[in-house]
Amino acid sequence: MVSARCKLAVKEVLKKLEIHFILVDLGEIEIMENLSIEERDVLKSELLLCGLELMDDKRAVLIQKIKNAIFTMVHESDQEMKVNFSSYLSDKLDHDYTYLSNLFSEVQGTTIEQFVIAHKVERIKELISYGELTITEIAWKLNYSSIAHLSNQFKKVTGLSPSHFKNLKNKLRKPLEEIG
Question: How far is the CA of 97 from the CAs of 8, 117, 171, in angstroms?
Fold first, then answer.
């Protein structure tokens, strides 16, 4: 689940199946009762109809938690990060960063760093499109060390400078589900 719409869809499925839940959050649900194998299969089928997947594999669950942490940090946080991202991720997921990084690379075929950069570039596009913040403010908001660093990273990924992107009519944004 990578959006409020996904969370809403999951809640509707759970209500339809009369499964009582405590929590529906990005990438995880917590239910009150134990499900039988049949109930779990029905839940899995209903979620698939919504384009969502029930994950049983612990590695897949951990990968999803990494993605959710990145999503939350880049797209939902309005606070400047006080610690580096590797420490944040290790603390949040209670695993060594090297383990998380190796697992992510092995399963996803890309590094955590590349995944973060892809999300940051999409967030930059979004913020530029809104036109409410300057490039300097966007750089600060997304924890870049300088405008030059943001600009170089943006150009490396998109082939455009942030100012050139700002002048385009077609903003070339990707849906968040298609990143990484």
Answer: 31, 17, 34
Q: What is the CATH number of the domain that holds 154?
A: 1.10.10.60
**153, 173: one domain:** yes
Q: Where are the alpha helices (DSSP H) in the chain?
A: 4-16, 37-49, 58-71, 85-93, 97-108, 112-130, 135-141, 147-158, 162-167
Q: How do beta strands 28-31 and 21-25 pair?
A: antiparallel
pLDDT tens sequence across 4-59: 788 888 999 999 999 998 888 866 788 888 888 899 889 989 988 988 888 767 88
- Residues 77 and 102 reside in one and the same domain: yes
Domain count within the chain: 2
**Mean pLDDT rounded to a whole number for the chain:** 86
User: Can you give the residue range of the structural domain that contains 26?
Assistant: 4-54
In the three-class reduction of DSSP (H, G, I as helix; E, B as strand; rest coil), residue 21 is classed as strand
